[in-house]
């Protein structure tokens, strides 16, 4: 594994069709390669608009197999550019069985591994439980030529247990493809609190585990197909932070590449000074596997 790598997160709108979105993501990835990126992250469910705003059985037709058409396209791009890519797909595993799945492509274009989203939300505008079965692969880092990638997906961001288990399994970095935004009806103060909470929780995973974190979000207002709500205004603000939660690079709400260099050697240095893993009281944490600690 290299001591340092350059990482790029592609922040863009996903309102176009399947082919258009893949083309635009490919163009952005070529720009990232021109900036010497070794690892490129794409947003969650990037092939089209965020379809989980409504429950519609016809939308299962958007899912595809892994391997499948999208993985062939992304694999060719990874091989062409000699970079590692983290993509995000609506996976058709079997008839009636679907997942929200991140796929990691090695520099040679082969699939290095995948992660199926474990925490599935069911909130107003985010009706993912209708579409996605919770993952059954577990929290296993994916070995690649640029390190062991602790890939998680969006709603997983809010769970310290997921980040910790990836860290304990040897992840060198935590990566979150994301689709999150505001309800346009929220006032500015509520929007600010929501955004700051989102950034803070992910930076806390970096601090608690001594690992760099990449969060790659989409942007833009996507209408509710049912017309019952104003839709979701995806807020962008993708970022990359170091193992003390320090921002290394971050975006606002524009389409952009977030590019920076990450020094993996800092994990060892930080963990020697702040030995959280050493001082964990694993003999006293059995309650974490229970839903609630009733009397």
UniProtKB/TrEMBL annotation:
Top enzyme class: hydrolase
CDD domains from the xrefs? CPA
Please report the name of this protein according to its UniProt entry.
N-carbamoylputrescine amidase
All copies of domain CN hydrolase, residue ranges: 5-264
Q: Which Pfam families match?
A: CN_hydrolase
- Tagged with keyword Hydrolase: yes
Entry superkingdom: Bacteria
* Gene Ontology terms, MF aspect: N-carbamoylputrescine amidase activity
Q: What keywords does the record list, in alphabetical order?
A: Hydrolase
Name its species.
Methylomarinovum caldicuralii
On whether Glycoprotein is a keyword of this UniProt record, the answer is: no
UniProt record, GO biological process: putrescine biosynthetic process from arginine
Matching InterPro entries: Aliph_Amidase/BUP (IPR050345), C-N_Hydrolase (IPR003010), C-N_Hydrolase_sf (IPR036526)
State its Enzyme Commission number(s): 3.5.1.53
